[in-house]
Model the fold of this input.
Amino acid sequence: MQQSFQATEADVLVVVDVQNDFCPGGALAVERGDEVVPLINKLAPQFRHVVFTQDWHPPRHASFASTHGKTPFDTLPLYYGEQVLWPDHCVQGTPGAEFHPALDRRPAELIVRKGFRPNIDSYSAFFENDHVTRTGLAGYLRDRGFRHLYVCGLALDFCVKWSALDAVQEGFLATVVDDACRAIDLNGSLAQARAEMKGAGILFTQSAKLLA
Done:
């Protein structure tokens, strides 16, 4: 008989960017993105510790196509590398930047806001896209004694991927809760993301294996 999952004090659920603009009807909607909400609401009580991330851009952010007079999903070389240009999304203080209304936010012990620097994008919960500027999350996790991150949310092939990869780089174990994520899949980005994560030693699991 398979033993049921029991989270320890070293485990933390990291819920990435489950915000209105990334859900159907939002400015940068991930197809079926809202389907992760009921799963995450069930997963969170299985963990003793939960962290949320929140995309939090100022107006005219460098990652917005409108800032450069470009078309969304074009790319542009910026000082830190090639940047995908997105529709304006998750602008500070707007309804699109808020968490999905059905997402239970009560379990969150910390909300990490990212992407608030005007001139640089931030996919990862750990670093801005220059891979140098830190959000402070790694220090928080170490100070709290967490060692294993279970990552879920939006989108699997961008912010979830980079968060999981950087977690491993920072010395943590990382497991992606696959069915509690959805992907953009831009030009094959989903298959590439899966390959990158598996190559880095990131594990994948299903929510059913974590639910009591």
